[in-house]
Amino acid sequence: MAHKKPVFLAVLLVIVIGFLVVYSVEMLRITKQRKFEIAVVLKSNNIRSDYWQMVSTGVKAAAKEFDVNIDITGPLSESDTAGQIRNVDEALEKKPDAIILAATDYDRLTPAAQKIKESGTRLILIDSPIHTHVEASLIATDNTEAGRKAGMILAGRRNGKLYKVMTLSSGTGSIAEKERKDGFKEAVADSPGIEYAGNYEFNGTEDAAYDLVKNLLSMYPDIQGIAGLNESATLGAARAVKEKQWIDKVKIVGFDSSIYQIKLLEEGIIQATVVQKPFNMGYLSVETAVQALNGIKVNPKVNIDAIVITKENMYTQENQELLFPLVEK
């Protein structure tokens, strides 16, 4: 019967080893940090929008570096606020760890943002703020300063004579455009001899901006400067001025850097464009989300500087990289 003890010990050892193996595997499964899931809801996910595609490129680069999963959505048009709200609802259903949102409307996205906060999901805003401050961080261009830069460009075209200028903005309730307008007005107010003729709104499309400017030039032939506060405004205004053959009379300053705007800049139809840094914005949004999810205190507001591009400085290496980024399609 003495041989039973070694057998018993051997069986016991096997059981203990098996238990330790199972326990170790389970602990490894529990302690192994899973990838964070981050939903990104842009103002537009249209592949024809160079700006938002560049934001996406920055997001993807950061997602790869920080090893997180991302899901990028957004309506086809920046004016489709209802569509973006649906995108947010759909993103929340997937229970992501964080949502990065570029809100199309200052007021109408507030309930959606509140819903994100109540769900326990971390919210990072990019490009534009919303009415309530429920986000962990806002990463955006300093739009007031960008508008001031646009105003200073047009003010510099005065040549000592009375100079009438106006701004064009979409009617989408964009706080970014409001801040640009405010900055523009500040620059104009500080420039003697400049008269601000007001801000005129259109429904958000290039064609609508073109129709508006065409009518305004007929009604107010003494207008000499136009600041398009977004890409559609800039392109529509340029089309109307070119068609009327008033390129030498009406100076245009715009925002953003689509291939069409770059061509207009080269042709001298627009005098300058204020270019943001969308890649940086996209990259920083993911980096900030990861920091917040790891319990690191993040900066509640990150301002990104904008650059004024003119025909004279557009060929520097730094500005060429900004104007012709490598965008993933």
TrEMBL record:
<feature type="transmembrane region" description="Helical">
    <location>
        <begin position="6"/>
        <end position="25"/>
    </location>
</feature>
<dbReference type="InterPro" id="IPR025997">
    <property type="entry name" value="SBP_2_dom"/>
</dbReference>
<comment type="similarity">
    <text>Belongs to the bacterial solute-binding protein 2 family.</text>
</comment>
<keyword id="KW-1133">Transmembrane helix</keyword>
<keyword id="KW-0472">Membrane</keyword>
<feature type="domain" description="Periplasmic binding protein">
    <location>
        <begin position="38"/>
        <end position="295"/>
    </location>
</feature>
<keyword id="KW-0732">Signal</keyword>
<dbReference type="Pfam" id="PF13407">
    <property type="entry name" value="Peripla_BP_4"/>
</dbReference>
<dbReference type="InterPro" id="IPR028082">
    <property type="entry name" value="Peripla_BP_I"/>
</dbReference>
<protein>
    <submittedName>
        <fullName>Substrate-binding domain-containing protein</fullName>
    </submittedName>
</protein>
<keyword id="KW-0812">Transmembrane</keyword>
